[in-house]
Amino acid sequence: MKIHIAGFLLLNCITGSSVSAFSTSSSYRTPRVRDTFPSTTRSESTAIHSSTSTLPDFRDTTTLPKEIPAPQIRTFAHQVEQALLAKFPEEEIQNVITSWRLLDQDYQHREYFGDTKADPLISNQYQFAHSYVPGLSVKPFWDIDNISWAKKLQQNYKQILKEFTSVIDNKEKLAAGNNVWAGALTEEAGGYGKGWSTLVLKDRGIWDETNCNLFPKTAKLIQKSGVPATEVFFASMKPHSEIKLHSDFTNFVLTSHLALQIPQNGENKCRLTIGDEVRQWKNGEVMVFDTSLMHDAINETDETRYILMFRIWHPDLTEVERDALQLIYDCLSVPELLDENEAVRLDAEQQMQVLKQFPLLKTGGGSGFGGAKKSTASKKKKKGKK
């Protein structure tokens, strides 16, 4: 059987491969989670629906239930919860357990965060999250002044842009990539239209070795900068296209963009709206924002807009909570981590360790980032042979 684990598959459902379904063995019963995220390719998020006429009423706010039952025994949800409790102290991951149980109960968190003077019937500043960790702060845009990795990305913008343009302008190089400029596969992601597409470097904590070798300088720079990213990918938005109002359904990750190529830069023609706050992309600038709030985007120019996008852990999460959430993603990537056979589990753990390693990047031909330089002695030796 196949099951879809709603919001916790957000990072999975927008990958370039159709892996959003978790195949279970016959020993598991289908958990009480909805088929919310069918397979799509990677997008800047996942649209709710393709038109506002079918948009769920995100203004119908909800409150957390007082009692949240544990998942039914021998369901996938139960197996994941047991794996969490076996690895982490329960008191340190209580919010993660609560989040997982809420998902199992089909809970959707909808809350208004707009200005008290604004009309809540008109405002779009609502949080809409299927995957909801209680207690995390909410604001449309985050100040990046004290975010060191964001500053490092901005400082290296020209280097990232140079490598990016050198690859996308070379059809032969792009042909060697993995799911290059992939678009949506399903109707549910239709809110993005046909104007956007993506190129993945990292998905749910796992680097794409093929694509990282297309952009070795960028990949290594991201790793060295310490970006707390669960996902990294380039995203394009075609001329005169828009991304309709939607939510990313998950509040425990934020989104960040490094603007690479913005047509009519600084003229307010390429804009992003989070809740009720509108900002424009500007070349070389980093933005961090909360896409569990309703949001949309537009490109009003005659050229394609390019960004480097990150899905990052919410800053309010503790390190233990991040690790617990990552374990859930690991179980989705390698379901054998939940196998009752200890030998199978150990093999799965080793497999996961290999998958999470930063890829070996080719540095030949000067394409690497900070590749090993030949020593002076070596140069002199070669010179002497001539």
From TrEMBL:
Q: Is Signal included in the keywords of this UniProt record?
A: yes
Q: Name one Pfam family in it.
A: Asp_Arg_Hydrox
What organism does the record attribute this protein to?
Answer: Chaetoceros tenuissimus
**Domain Aspartyl/asparaginy/proline hydroxylase: where?**
154-315
Q: What is the lineage of its organism?
A: Eukaryota, Sar, Stramenopiles, Ochrophyta, Bacillariophyta
Which GO molecular function, any one, fits this protein according to its record?
dioxygenase activity
Please note every region of biased composition (Polar residues).
37-55
This one is known as Aspartyl/asparaginy/proline hydroxylase domain-containing protein
Quick one: signal sequence residues?
Answer: 1-21
* Keywords for this protein: Dioxygenase, Oxidoreductase, Signal
Of the GO CC terms on this record, one is: membrane
Q: Where is the composition biased (Basic residues)?
A: 376-386
According to the lineage, what is the superkingdom?
A: Eukaryota
Q: Which SUPFAM superfamilies match?
A: Clavaminate synthase-like
Identify its protein family.
Answer: Belongs to the aspartyl/asparaginyl beta-hydroxylase family.
